[in-house]
Amino acid sequence: xxxxxxxxxxxxxxxxxxxxxxxxxxxxxxxxxxxxxxxxxxxxxxxxxxxxxxxxxxxxxxxxxxxxxxxxxxxxxxxxxxxxxxxxxxxxxxxxxxxxxxxxxxxxxxxxxxxxxxxxxxxxxxxxxxxxxxxxxxxxxxxxxxxxxxxxxxxxxxxxxxxxxxxxxxxxxxxxxxxxxxxxxxxxxxxxxxxxxxxxxxxxxxxxxxxxxxxxxxxxxxxxxxxxxxxxxxxxxxxx
Length: 240
Prior knowledge:
It is built from 4 helices and 18 strands. By secondary structure, it is mainly beta.
């Protein structure tokens, strides 16, 4: 059998551990939901009217994924080009089945499991892009900017619709809310996103962050928790 020849070795497939299994979950794409908690939307200056507005999304490259856990915190360097590096604690949904134009009532069958995650953000670059009417890529999609814990397999087709979500920085609580405060819940997000993409196993959906986002600096320890899912930790290092 002929094998494809490459000019250099292809990058390894990004993946995450799965609780209770030796096999890992290969990550295909990372979709992120913007402003999906009203408190965060207000602190960002744009309240959300669900009756007249739709969810919106941005994408992080799967290569930006960093695996972490409370027991073995990852360490990431303070990223280049920013002086305002922010944390955003989120519930992450892992897709485990194909789906296109999925009905809300059927969305649960696409959910493989959940994880706790951090959507790290170069806030100054994001705000600059917003002010100029440009995409958010420099502010959101950068190396080691998608932090994620182990995948916890879901049971049946029930989706998470409540549970505490919190983040502490150096032991002080910064973010504290509940998954019931999501503006668009998991079923609604899967149904909406599947109108625009053929969702595939290995896709991740970062479902949005509650209010309380803020800057972190080298030497900070971030500790996050999602009730029923798990805990993660992250150390911020010096600029690389």
